[in-house]
Amino acid sequence: MVEVTxxxxxxxxxxxxxxxxxxxxxARYDQHAAFQRDVGLRLLDKLPEQLNGWRILDLGCGTGYxxxxxxxxxxxxxxxxxxxAMLQQAYQRCGTARMAYLQADGEVLPFASSVxxxxxxxxxxxWCENLATPLQEIYRVLKPTGRVCLSTLLEGxxxxxxxxWLKVDSYQHVNRFTSLNQxxxxxxxxxxxxxHLDLSAITVWYESAVSLMRDLKGIGANHxxxxxxxxxxxxxxxxxxxxxxxxxxxxxxxxxxxxxCLGVLHR
Length: 267
Prior knowledge:
- There is one protein chain.
- The protein is an alpha/beta fold and 267 residues long.
- The chain has a domain of 182 residues: Vaccinia Virus protein VP39 (Rossmann fold, 3-Layer(aba) Sandwich), CATH 3.40.50.
- Helices cover 34% and strands 24% of the residues.
- The protein contains nine helices and eight strands.
- Strands 1-4-3-2-5-6-8-7 form an eight-stranded mixed β-sheet, with helices on both faces.
- Helix 3 links the parallel strand 2 and strand 3.
């Protein structure tokens, strides 16, 4: 059993419910996380191949896929996640060599100031209610010459799924993602000296809408504030499936489009 240091995190913004959703998905996460690995690899490409002597915070580490690559490049990695079960999976993947595991909230990082060479965070910050808060905390824990490598999802992600659900009911079934302008405002509220953002649309193809929803549930990204409580009826899912057919391509596949922001920030 991995030794994980835990810090109380804020219960506002459904943090506890988010952590519980990811914990339930931890054991099967990797089976459904091809898109997350793709984005993580794109973000890792923005760091040197050799990271010997670097101390890196992997914020929202999940099952440790990126943590392991950082470790293999020679870095000392501190894995942080809201979910204890995710940290257990990361430990099983990465072990203890130059690794530490901490259950904590990215909006209240339990570290002294100026202690990390890099803060790496892939597809985690979209779960924060106010992006400015973790960005300021990340700035605080970075060394003066440190950098941030982050990825997050933008407004317009999963638009096909959202539009299909709107034809069925009025509940919120897809998370609301931040706009590029909101990210720029949050960055302005911090004090980074250099900011470089890469924007791209990444499409993942599915045979059915249910397959997409199964992946979202499989990674734990199925906690949506405002969603109707209880099980979704089979005929309702059939209606969503029918509505999604509008997007089917000539090869018979359905798209799930993600608007992705990759950022490199220098303190």
